[in-house]
Amino acid sequence: MDDSFVKIVNTQTLAIAYMEYGAADGWPVILCHGFPYDARAFDQVAPYLVAAGAKVYTPFTRGFGQTRFLSENTARNAQQAIRALDIIEFAEALGLNRPILGGFDWGGNASCTAAALWPDKISGLVSYAGYDIIDVQQQRHALSPSLEKVCWYQHLFQSERGRECLVSNRYEIGRLLWQEWSPNWNFDEKVYARTAAAFDNPDFVDIVIHCYRFMHGKETGDPALQHLEDRLAQKPAIRVPTVTIDGTADPLKPGGTADHARWFSGRHEHIITSAGHNIPQEAPPQFAGAVLKLHDWLP
């Protein structure tokens, strides 16, 4: 899908760029990408869902693609609560009635957060990987050395040297992360380049840097959202029906997330597939199948 098919809808703070697939009367699904990906991660997932009667929306998250802030004065904030609120406001702006949410990486985090905070706004959740709500306080403590090595980019972004590196080398950093996180996926350079064009957003660097500095306690979030982060720190159960997915070749999730089941109080099923971090592009039938399984549960 080329950029002529990208649409724009305004929320309180953003002009959100998105793509849509399927008939207007289809059951609504919002699929959310992460870093360093874009909305086109779901290009091969959407046809499976449309064939089953879905109306699929794939927004570009803040700082990516053609999504823009409505005001220059708005803080370029990327904490999990605000990215979750973006999804809820996106659904409201389009008049969607309790859509299914699905996502991976940042998009999985934002979708899980939205499901935990506003369960009455959605009908179900597909999450890669597991209960993907960030424990901000725990995130600020050391992980195992092997996982700290995998998270080198997060450490890089804590310094101004890291910001400079992202400004000058966003294309190369993104490609390197694709290679490291999906070690068995031989993606085409054209496929990557199409996504990397979304990193040319004028807010990309500020959003990425804030996301990881907030997680590591180096920058603050929006004080008006602190009550939401306080709720998330309590590890609230997700009560909407949920299908979670793990990829066995993902170095960011060693051992998988099967032990996350305790945080889902509604109907829940866990699926494991032989893929890396970018499940929608590495295994589109499996990601679509998780959404379809969830839809079959709903009344």
From TrEMBL:
One of its GO terms (molecular function) is hydrolase activity. Keywords: Hydrolase. Residues 28-147 form the AB hydrolase-1 domain. It holds the Pfam family Abhydrolase_1. The keyword Chloroplast does not apply. SUPFAM superfamilies: alpha/beta-Hydrolases (SSF53474). This is Alpha/beta hydrolase. It comes from Mucilaginibacter gynuensis.
